[in-house]
Amino acid sequence: MRSSSTDSLTGSKPACPEDKNIEQHPCSGTGSVTVVGLGPGSSELLAPLAAQAIERCDVLVGYGTYMDLVPDALKQGKDHIVTGMKKELDRVNAAVDAACEGRDTVVISSGDSGIYGMSGLVLEVLEKRELLDDVTLNVIPGIPALAAGAALLGAPLMHDFAVISMSDLLTPWERIESRVSHAAAADFSLVIYNPRSKRRDWQLPKALELVREHRSPETPIGIVTSAFREKQQIQVTTLGEVKPEDIGMLSIVFIGNSQTRKVGNRILTPRGYADKYAMGK
Asked: Fewest CB atoms within 10 Å of the CB: 91, 93, 178, 215?
C-alpha cells in the first residue's frame, strides 16, 4: 500500500486559499474527481457504486478518521492523501491537482457527501479554479447519518423535517438560532447534526430552549451515537428530560413534532394514514 501526505504526493505543497496562483494551476490531464459517501460507517452499508469507484481510483483522499472506515482491500495499490480536521480545503485542492495530472481521484465523506459533506467544497474549488470544463466531477451518494439514525429509532422522520447543524464554525450562530426557532414554530421534526463538543457546549441547550417554546415536555427525542459502528448507542427520551451533557459530536439528535409519539421503545412521527383510512386492529 502506498501512503503519502498532501505535501509529498505531487512533490509540492497544494494550493491554499491565500495562494495567489490558485486559478493558474495547469490542468493538462484527463483525470476525474469522484466524491463518495461512505454511509454511516459499516462496510455492509457502503453502496456498491461507491465501492467500485474507490477500487478503481488512483488516488484516495480523506480525513483520517473516515479513511479508517474504508475496507482495507479497497485501499490497496493507490496513493492516499490524508489530513486532519479543518484541512478540507487542502484535501480538495490536492485531489484536484491529482486529477489535473490525469489521475482518477476519489474524495471520501462519511454518510452522504452532499449532506454536510465534501461534494459542495469540491464543486466550489473547481469553480474558483476555473476547471469545471477540465476536470470530470462525479458524485456518488451514500446512506446519510440521519437515515441511519432514523432507522435505528423506528420512524421519527415520516413527515416533514428540518436538518440543522449546531456547528458555528462556518455559519454564524444567529443564523442557526433563527433556523431552529422558525423550524420549531413550523412544527417540523428536527434533526440536529454536530450537537455538542468540548468547545461548543452551550449551543445545544440554547436550541432546546427555543424548541420548548413550541413543543410540550413530552415530545419524544431520540439520540443516536455512532450509528452502525462499533460503539453504537441509542437513547429515547423526551424534551423535558433530555440531558445535553450526555450528548457529543458523534451523536445525532432527533426531536419530534407535535404529533410524534413513543411506540414501545421506538419513535413514530405519523404520516397521517390513521386520519384518512380505517386502520383496523
From this structure: 178
Distance CA 240, CA 219 (A): 8
- For residue 203, CA distances in Å to 154, 173, 185 come to 27, 8, 18
The tens-digit pLDDT sequence of the chain (281 residues) is: 444 444 333 333 333 333 433 444 567 777 899 999 999 989 999 999 999 999 999 999 999 999 999 999 999 999 999 988 889 999 999 999 999 999 999 999 999 999 999 999 999 999 999 999 999 999 999 999 999 999 999 999 999 999 999 999 899 999 999 999 999 999 999 999 999 988 888 999 999 999 999 999 999 999 999 999 989 999 999 999 999 999 998 999 999 999 999 999 999 999 976 776 766 66
- How far apart (Å, rounded) are the C-alpha atoms in residues 195 and 249? 6
To the nearest 10°, the Cα dihedral for 37, 38, 40, 45?
120
Q: 139 φ, ψ to 5°?
A: -125, 125
3-state secondary structure of 102: coil
Per the document, the length of the chain is: 281
| CA gyration radius, the chain | 21
